[in-house]
From TrEMBL, chain A:
<comment type="function">
    <text>Sliding clamp subunit that acts as a moving platform for DNA processing. Responsible for tethering the catalytic subunit of DNA polymerase and other proteins to DNA during high-speed replication.</text>
</comment>
<dbReference type="GO" id="GO:0003677">
    <property type="term" value="F:DNA binding"/>
</dbReference>
<dbReference type="Pfam" id="PF00705">
    <property type="entry name" value="PCNA_N"/>
</dbReference>
<protein>
    <recommendedName>
        <fullName>DNA polymerase sliding clamp</fullName>
    </recommendedName>
</protein>
<dbReference type="InterPro" id="IPR022649">
    <property type="entry name" value="Pr_cel_nuc_antig_C"/>
</dbReference>
<keyword id="KW-0235">DNA replication</keyword>
<feature type="domain" description="Proliferating cell nuclear antigen PCNA C-terminal">
    <location>
        <begin position="180"/>
        <end position="242"/>
    </location>
</feature>
<dbReference type="Pfam" id="PF02747">
    <property type="entry name" value="PCNA_C"/>
</dbReference>
<feature type="domain" description="Proliferating cell nuclear antigen PCNA N-terminal">
    <location>
        <begin position="5"/>
        <end position="99"/>
    </location>
</feature>
UniProtKB/TrEMBL annotation, chain B:
<keyword id="KW-0067">ATP-binding</keyword>
<feature type="compositionally biased region" description="Acidic residues">
    <location>
        <begin position="450"/>
        <end position="459"/>
    </location>
</feature>
<feature type="binding site">
    <location>
        <begin position="44"/>
        <end position="51"/>
    </location>
    <ligand>
        <name>ATP</name>
    </ligand>
</feature>
<comment type="function">
    <text>Part of the RFC clamp loader complex which loads the PCNA sliding clamp onto DNA.</text>
</comment>
<dbReference type="InterPro" id="IPR003593">
    <property type="entry name" value="AAA+_ATPase"/>
</dbReference>
<comment type="similarity">
    <text>Belongs to the activator 1 small subunits family. RfcL subfamily.</text>
</comment>
<keyword id="KW-0547">Nucleotide-binding</keyword>
<dbReference type="InterPro" id="IPR023935">
    <property type="entry name" value="Rep_factor-C_lsu"/>
</dbReference>
<protein>
    <recommendedName>
        <fullName>Replication factor C large subunit</fullName>
    </recommendedName>
</protein>
Length: 247, 506
């Protein structure tokens, strides 16, 4: 059983953050929250999303799992104006999801959850550095890095107490330095890893510019990016494996 | 009903039947991957265990796998997005220290010889750059090793999987029957194994088809029709050009060949004269010309139903042009332009055209012949180096132009020198840009001398002394003139030791 009403913008934010990594995903309809966890086909990027029941206008669920085609669902959600409410109802007989937006009604065929790539376990990581920064700052670093290279180095300098976003191209370099005062919070530690911009660029699209992004970083370890949406009642964690250093 | 070929797919390399040597090679490749970091090509007939070997290897090593096969569209973009990302990043689980594989995962590109030019746009070159830059082990799987481009073959190691002998197939079938609880006549299994000559997967599929749901498998159950097999090009040529007694027989055989009419036309055309006498050839050429007209219509209209008329002409038409049958054995040759030189030649011509700023046609007809004459067998060497540097040629290109063997030391050293030369030029050039007026005036003067010299000598030179002002070509001109005035100007800012100019050789 699943029946919920949610604002279109919250739904869109949630879907966008997942669709940057995968085309299909499983949605867990837990009693107190909606949860999505997915890993991209290349096994490099992962997203873990929860949207609390309180983020919905109304929410009833009893722990089922459905598989959806995210592109379709996004398209439908795109039909709504941002203030509109979207009503979702699962028809367990036909295994279809009924979606209603201001008189528009859409029946979405679901995908067998077993046919979707398995949900990953979240590796338990102890990452030494933690940076809390505005989404816009990260976006700036990524956009600049993208001009010169296809990978990016995230680094914390313990001595200088600064967070660096660096990219080295064939001919040109880009370097964004964020000192403690530019950051919301910094817990310095030995941290430096290289990542693919392909992924970060996509993730960056989903991160709201005004969100506080908590970055956990290690040495040649995956990076974790946490942020909230939907007035703090939705949480997203991205995790991205480091790029292999080849020289 | 699950597919037995999946159910009984080996989960470890040690379970793989047949091809012991190849399996050993695969294991060695994986064990030494850290040292060589090269991609591996597994090639061989269908159903002999190539894909199974790749997956079994990953299971043995505890690597995760990312697989891309022919059911996915494989454009450059897709390959970049899936295989490319997987090949350049650590895995989430591994890099987090969750296991001891260090974030390694195996990228498997199945049917790598079947990346189609149009449907998988840009796929071929994406694969080549993938294997060259990959930070993860990559296995390419192919039926026809030589269908893959030379660039790809050179950048990879290869292991051939041979057909699995009937003697190795029977025990596999026996095991499966035991596990499925089916009694069997030994003859029946042998029959299946023989019929599938070398194709283990085919044998397992056949076994499932006849045995599923039965308690006891007897020889009678197995006696069914043989499956269709495609005809090779050589038997087809034998039939059309020598043996067929009717046009219809030749036509029928053309349906069984797994080649497009374009390719068949070139095969026939290139081989026909080996057996046809003059009068037969005249008639046969008429039909080949008609076939070609139809191929042209296919090309122009993209209406592939015209292929059948090309097929009629190239098989029935050519066969009908022959008087009687012919005996003996003929060595059929691969059509000349077929794969052998065309890629390299196109690359060479494209480089010349780009650098010179003229069409590929001009580059091919008005420039390339001169280059070939001037640098025949890499003599004079300095000029060849100069050319390789100017066009950024690789060894294969230099070999194509000069006619020297590609892997010879001579060609390799020329390519190396050309690279050094380019690097030197790059430095020199930026130096000149920052050093100010005096220097640029000087190079300008040299540039004049160079283009005069070159312009006087021959047309082919225009490419090197090209006046379009691009950095390298301007540079070439400058250097060409440089030597001519070196004696008079020993204090020239640049030091061009080892650098000879074009004018020395004219």
């Amino acid at each position: 059983m699943f029946k919920a009403i949610v604002s279109a913008s919250t739904l869109r934010d949630a879907l966008d953050s997942v669709s940057v990594l995968v085309d299909e995903c499983k949605i867990r309809l837990n009693e107190d929250e909606l949860a999505i966890r997915a890993v991209d086909p290349a096994n490099v990027g992962m997203v873990d999303l929860t949207l609390e029941a309180a983020a919905f206008e109304s929410y009833e669920a009893d722990g089922g799992v459905i598989g959806v085609n995210l592109n379709r669902l996004e398209d439908i959600a795109g039909m709504a104006n941002s203030g509109d409410l979207v009503q979702l109802e699962l028809d367990e007989e036909t295994r279809k999801l009924h979606i209603q937006i201001d008189g528009l009604s859409y029946t979405l065929a679901l995908i067998d959850p077993d046919s979707i790539r398995q949900e990953p376990d979240i590796p338990d990581l102890d990452l030494p550095a933690e940076i809390v920064v505005e989404g816009a700052q990260i976006g700036r670093g990524i956009t600049a890095a993208d001009m010169v290279s296809d990978h990016i180095r995230l680094r914390v300098d313990e001595a200088e107490e600064a967070f660096f976003i660096e990219a080295e191209g064939d001919t040109d370099d880009v370097d964004l330095r964020l000192d403690r005062e530019d950051l919301i919070d910094l817990q310095a530690g030995p941290a430096e890893s290289l990542f693919s911009l392909d992924y970060l660029k996509d993730m960056n699209k989903a991160i709201p510019k005004d969100a506080e992004v908590r970055v956990e970083l290690g040495e040649e370890f995956p990076v974790k990016l946490h942020y909230e949406f939907g007035e703090g009642m939705g949480q997203v964690t991205y995790m991205l494996a480091p790029r292999i250093q080849s020289d | 009903m699950t597919d037995w070929t999946e159910t009984y797919r080996p989960s470890s390399l040690s379970e793989l039947r047949g091809n012991d040597k190849a399996v050993k090679g695969v294991r060695e490749w994986a064990d030494t991957w850290d040292d060589h970091r090269e991609a591996l090509v597994l090639h061989g007939s269908p159903g002999v265990g190539k894909t199974s070997a790749a997956h079994a290897l990953a299971a043995d090593k505890g690597w995760e796998t990312v697989e891309l096969n022919a059911s996915d569209q494989r454009t450059a973009d897709v390959i970049e997005r899936y295989a490319g990302r997987a090949a350049n990043n650590a895995t989430l689980g591994g890099s987090a220290g969750g296991d001891d594989t260090g974030g390694r995962q195996l990228v498997i590109l199945d049917e790598a010889d079947n990346i189609h030019g149009n449907y998988d746009r840009g796929g071929k070159s994406a694969v080549t750059s993938l294997v060259k830059s990959a930070g993860q082990p990559v296995i390419l799987i192919a039926n026809e090793y030589y269908e893959m481009s030379r660039g790809l073959r050179n950048a990879t190691q290869d292991i051939e999987f041979r057909d699995v002998g009937a003697r190795s197939i029977v025990p596999v079938l026996r095991d499966i029957c035991r596990k499925e609880g089916i009694e069997f006549d030994a003859d029946a299994l042998e029959r299946i194994a023989e019929r599938n000559a070398g194709d283990l997967r085919g044998a397992v599929n056949d076994l499932q088809a006849v045995a599923d749901g039965k308690d006891h498998l007897m020889l009678e159950d197995v006696v069914t029709g043989d499956r269709d097999r495609s005809m090779g090009v050589f038997p087809f040529l034998d039939l059309v050009l020598k043996e067929s007694t009717s046009a219809q027989e030749a036509l029928q055989s053309s349906y069984e060949v797994d080649e497009t009419p374009d390719d068949l036309t070139t095969w026939i055309e290139d081989n026909m004269l080996k057996v046809y006498d003059t009068e037969e050839a005249v008639r046969a050429y008429d039909h080949l010309a008609d076939a070609d007209v139809w191929l042209g219509r296919v090309w122009a209209s993209q209406n592939y139903s015209y292929w059948r008329y090309a097929g009629d002409n190239l098989s029935a038409g050519v066969a009908a042009a022959r008087d009687g049958t012919k005996g003996g054995w003929t060595r059929w040759g691969r059509p000349q332009f077929y794969h052998s030189t065309s890629d390299t030649s196109d690359e060479v011509v494209r480089a010349i055209a780009e650098r010179g700023g003229f069409s590929m046609d001009t580059a091919r007809r008005a420039v390339l012949p001169y280059l070939q004459a001037m640098t025949h067998h890499c003599k004079p060497r300095a000029l060849t180096v100069e050319m390789a540097a100017a066009y950024e040629f690789e060894a294969e290109h230099v070999s194509f132009v000069t006619g020297s063997g590609e892997t010879t030391n001579k060609v390799e050293s020329i390519v190396e020198d050309a690279e050094d030369l380019r690097a030197e030029r790059m430095e020199e050039h930026s130096g000149g840009a920052f050093a100010g007026v005096a220097l640029s005036a000087e190079t300008g003067e040299h540039g004049d001398a160079g283009s005069d010299d070159a312009g006087d000598s021959e047309d082919g030179q225009t490419s090197l002394a090209d006046p379009d002002g691009s950095a390298e070509s301007g540079e070439s001109a400058g250097d060409a003139g440089h030597d001519a005035v070196r004696d008079a100007d020993p204090d020239a800012a640049e030091d061009d030791d080892g650098q000879s100019g074009l004018s020395d050789f004219m």
